[in-house]
Design a protein that fits this description.
Length: 261
């Protein structure tokens, strides 16, 4: 009888540890899947003029956030140079200004230099690589500039804004190839988006534009469409969705998900 009880205890103990092992394996699989879904963690680079959430896979900021009011751009300061400096808050290997040379893309800002011309240190920070993205000339000087101007217009009207801007990608990602062995490959965004919300009223908007090589710079900015079937579908980044929810609210994430999948 005692031997039978010992056998039963052994079986129960084995079953207990087997169940615990299965639970641990399930948790590990879930963690791996969650990590894969979220992607590599973003690197946060905090500056006085903006905060950048940097993607070390694309070598572009995944999101840049800053506050904007009229006093921030009421000055007449001009940048001392047009070259971007490496942001030392970012891990190596880092993007260099020269990586863009002869790439066919201009050096685009997410936090606009024109939004920070009232203080020299702020203006200088907008020329850090944590704020740098590859844009076509058409996008940078046309549609994207129109989006920037619409944010500044609200600030001129006396509103205080929270602004977020980020690149979006297609499933098939093109890159700017490294110009030398120690360089980096920079992913080319298929478009750019901007969310802005007033901190002193209920006004808010979400706009985006494609990163096109050709076409008229005067074409109208794309607002959130009534039907997502009428526009190019961008790839959704769960990390960006989470940040937009935390920083701007559910409305921003929902509008982002309208044009991504």
């Amino acid at each position: 009888m005692n031997k039978l009880l010992d056998v039963l205890r052994t079986i129960l103990l084995f079953a207990k540890w087997l169940i615990i092992a299965l639970i641990l394996v399930s948790l590990w699989v879930w963690a791996v899947q969650a990590t894969h879904a979220q992607g590599v963690p973003l690197v946060k680079a905090t500056h006085d003029s903006f905060v950048s959430y940097y993607d070390i896979q694309t070598h572009n900021p995944a999101l840049v956030v800053y506050q904007l009011e009229y006093s921030h751009f009421a000055g007449v300061l001009k940048p001392s140079g047009r070259h971007f400096k490496m942001d030392t808050q970012l891990p190596r290997p880092r993007v260099k200004d020269s990586d863009y040379t002869n790439s066919g893309f201009v050096r685009g800002h997410l936090c606009s230099a024109a939004d920070r011309d009232s203080k020299k240190s702020w203006l200088k920070e907008t020329y850090l690589t944590s704020n740098l993205v590859p844009m076509t000339m058409v996008c940078n000087s046309g549609r994207w500039k129109a989006i920037e101007d619409s944010c500044r217009m609200l600030a001129i009207m006396g509103h205080r804004l929270r602004v977020g801007r980020w690149p979006m990608y297609n499933k098939l990602e093109n890159v700017i190839q490294a110009s030398q062995a120690k360089g980096v490959c920079i992913s080319i965004p298929a478009g750019f988006a901007c969310a802005a919300m007033c901190l002193d009223c209920d006004l808010r908007f979400f706009k985006w534009c494609p990163n096109l090589r050709s076409g008229s710079p005067q074409l109208v900015i794309q607002d959130i469409p009534s039907s997502p079937d009428n526009v190019v579908q961008f790839r959704n980044d769960p990390r960006v969705s989470m940040l937009l929810t935390n920083i701007f609210g559910v409305w921003c994430r929902e509008e982002y998900e309208t044009i991504t999948h």
